[in-house]
Specification:
The complex is a heterodimer. Chain A is of the alpha/beta class. Chain A is about 65% helix and about 5% strand. In chain A, a hairpin with a 2-residue loop joins strand 3 and strand 4. The longest helix of chain A is centred in the middle third of the chain and has 29 residues. Chain B is built from eleven helices and 14 strands. The two termini of chain B are about 35 Å apart. The chains are: A alpha/beta, B alpha/beta. Chain B: It holds the Pfam family ABC_tran.
Chain lengths: ~375, ~325
């Protein structure tokens, strides 16, 4: 009962602390909004392919010339592709090198040669694909002609088709936009901020002078300890809940279909963070602990990609260090669950968080037990 | 019956002995004054009685039970009014008292009644829904007391309950202390204001270097220094004051200076007639004397004589 009284007092007291509430709620929402809009392009993976210009030198004769002309005519104008004939005195390869054309094609009786541009690899690949397709059909027709000339005409006619490029929507996995990303990142970061409230749990009683009165009351240290931790966990989880709901319904961030599991992961993160803060406050014994906790939280936020995405390809020392950030664990697990429905991603991070929480809480409880007063 | 008994109580911090083999008995219904200058061991003793510090040795008995072994019983019968305000600024007066009283097992209507009673006792019942951050210093001090009395403890420890407040609030608190005592509470009272202690305490202990160096009623304490006279000399300025020269005058036991009012206080052997010599010494040093007063020993004289220091040092 005393534990609940202390937890309730803790929540009431913190909710009335206007500055703390602004810090816990308004700051992340504002940051989500600013970073979400400022870094929209970082998350935009679309590539625009239009006005694909191809330079052609056609010196072929006979069936190849006829077939190629039909092919070029059919394709030209489709999907923004333009075939220009090479003018006298113009060097086709130089035109490609200067990036005035995506590709240069030489069609002669000996075959078709394509010179692509390394500066426009996507466009080059498209043209290469169309030409390969055309060449395959032409070669097939040439082979059939040797057996049955009448049927070869049908195949030649097939090279006249115009649907070398087909726009097909591929149902790829949903990818997060900037607001989606920061909704997760900021929420996980808020969970980590539990370390700051945890760090001030006991210190605030000393600052208020109430530590003496609490210690003199017929309450066990364990009840004080559990009550304060419980109150802080509930307060931080309520903040996390508000951030998630605000981002979901106001910013329209995507949170997938497994919100209860997401809240469960965030709960373990909050418990771990509060335990960390409490542990550091007992280790440091006083005021400097607030600064140390702040540095740890900010480092974890930066390395965990709360302010700017840290890609999986981040290598070297930085890559190794990023894996130490609880915010990164949380971000990765939540992203997997939200976008890939990978529910198995939850268990490792939850076990890790709770394991650390047990270690930190155990150490803090031991130090509290040994200490005179609270 | 003894409400509190200390038997050889000792507290060591490393090699430093803060409380040294202290023994004391406080009887039911007493207002017991606990006097000592800063660092004398007074707060350490109070903290051990309140279970905030563990004794290094000795025994604390509250209502005849060992307080270090039966901690819950001891705490249930103890109320503390710490020197530093121990209240939550963001919780109303009612919530503050209710929270702390709730920790003593009070619930429901019983809790509500006791909280209202405590607030009424300290004159804050009309401020029950107000936040302490909007209170004056005196009101906060009164709330600090309310938080300690709602569970009706047998023994209340008041550590400097009137520090830094206006005279009106001080009078209110002193009246409240008497009323609490009348209702059956035993009170341990510490203060830097000697006149408060003299006014309300029935028995007094003077603590110095972790030991009780004198104990008794104020009359008994004063009687211990009948051979001392208390001379107060007010000077225009203390700039040219040479204490060493004054100390060399025969009969002088203790010299102290109160910077605030340019006052020199001298405890001297009553049998030695040295006032003229003291005044001559000061005048020869070029000092301007504004007033001279020779007083009968009071509690402050006793304290100064026994410890060699002012209470506020």
């Amino acid at each position: 009962m005393n534990t609940l009284s202390i937890a309730w007092k803790e929540m009431k007291h913190d909710f009335r602390d206007f500055r703390t509430m602004i810090f816990l709620l308004a700051f992340p929402i504002l940051l989500m909004l600013i970073l979400g809009f400022a870094l929209t392009n970082v998350f935009n993976g679309d590539v625009s392919v239009d006005n694909l210009k191809v330079l052609v030198k056609n010196t072929s004769t006979g069936q190849l010339s006829e077939a190629y002309t039909a092919f070029a005519k059919g394709v030209s104008g489709q999907s923004g592709i333009t075939f220009d004939d090479l003018k006298a005195g113009v060097n086709g390869r130089e035109e490609v090198e200067q990036n005035r054309y995506a590709d240069y094609i030489e069609v002669s009786d000996s075959g078709i040669h394509l010179y692509g541009s390394s500066r426009s690899p996507i466009e080059s690949n498209i043209v290469q694909g169309m030409l390969s397709s055309f060449a395959d059909k032409y070669n097939a027709a040439a082979a059939v002609e040797q057996q049955d000339p009448a049927k070869a005409e049908l195949i030649i006619a097939a090279t006249h088709q115009t649907d070398y490029i087909k726009d097909t929507a591929i149902n790829a996995d949903r990818q997060p936009g900037s607001i989606d990303y920061y909704a997760i990142a900021m929420t996980v970061m808020i969970g980590m901020w539990g370390a700051m409230t945890g760090g001030s749990l006991i210190r605030s009683e000393i600052v208020h002078g109430t530590a003496a009165r609490l210690a003199a009351a017929p309450v066990r240290k364990s009840e004080i300890f559990m009550g304060k931790v419980l109150g802080s966990v509930v307060l931080n989880m309520l903040c996390v809940f508000v951030i998630v709901m605000f981002s979901k319904y106001v910013f329209k961030a995507y949170w997938g279909n497994h919100l209860p599991l997401i809240f469960l992961i965030l709960l373990t993160e909050v418990i771990m963070s509060i335990s960390l803060g409490l542990f550091i406050s007992y280790m440091m014994k006083g005021e400097p602990s607030g600064g140390i906790v702040m540095i740890i939280v900010q480092l974890a936020s930066f390395l965990g990609g709360a302010y700017f995405p840290m890609g999986d390809d981040t290598g070297g020392f930085l890559g190794s260090v990023t894996n130490l950030s609880p915010i990164r664990w949380g971000n990765q697990a939540l992203t997997e669950i939200v976008y890939n429905n990978a529910l198995t991603a939850a268990l490792p991070v939850m076990l890790l968080n709770m394991g650390l929480a047990v270690l930190f809480l155990g150490a803090a409880a031991m130090m509290m037990h040994r200490k005179e007063g609270i | 019956m003894n409400v509190l008994e200390l038997r050889g109580l000792t507290k060591k911090f490393g090699d430093f002995i803060a409380v040294d083999n202290m023994s004391l008995q406080i009887r039911e219904g007493e207002i017991f004054g606990f006097l000592g200058s800063n660092g004398a061991g007074k707060s350490t003793t109070i903290n051990m009685i309140s279970s905030l510090l563990r004794p290094s040795g000795g025994e604390i008995r509250i209502l005849d039970r060992d307080a270090t072994k039966q901690t819950r019983f001891a705490k249930m019968n103890l109320g503390i009014v710490p020197q530093d305000l121990a209240i939550y600024e963001d919780m109303t007066a009612f919530e503050n008292v209710s929270f702390f009283a709730g920790l003593y097992g009070l619930r429901g209507n019983d809790l509500k009644e006791r909280v209202q009673e405590a607030l009424e006792f300290v004159g804050l019942s009309d401020k029950a829904k107000s936040f302490p951050k909007n209170f004056s210093g005196g009101m906060k001090r009164r709330l600090n007391i309310a938080c300690a009395i709602a569970h009706k403890p047998k023994l209340i420890i008041m550590d400097e309950p009137t520090v830094g407040i206006d005279p009106q609030s001080r009078n209110y608190i002193l009246t409240s202390v008497r009323k609490l005592n009348d209702s059956g509470c035993t009170i341990i009272y510490t203060s830097h204001y000697m006149e408060e202690v003299e006014e309300i305490c029935s028995r007094i202990a003077i603590v110095d270097h972790g030991k009780i160096i004198a104990e008794g009623t104020k009359e008994q304490l004063k009687a211990t220094i009948t051979d001392v006279k208390d001379i107060r000399i007010e000077l225009k300025s203390l700039d040219a004051l040479d204490l060493e020269q004054l100390k060399s005058i025969p009969g002088i036991r203790v010299l102290s200076v109160q910077q605030d009012d340019n006052m020199v206080r001298i405890q001297s052997d009553a049998a030695v007639d040295n006032l003229n010599r003291i005044l001559k010494q000061l005048i020869d040093s070029g000092m301007e004397i504004r007033a001279v007063e020779e007083q009968a020993p009071n509690l402050e004289t006793v304290f100064l004589t026994l410890t060699g220091r002012n209470l506020r040092d």
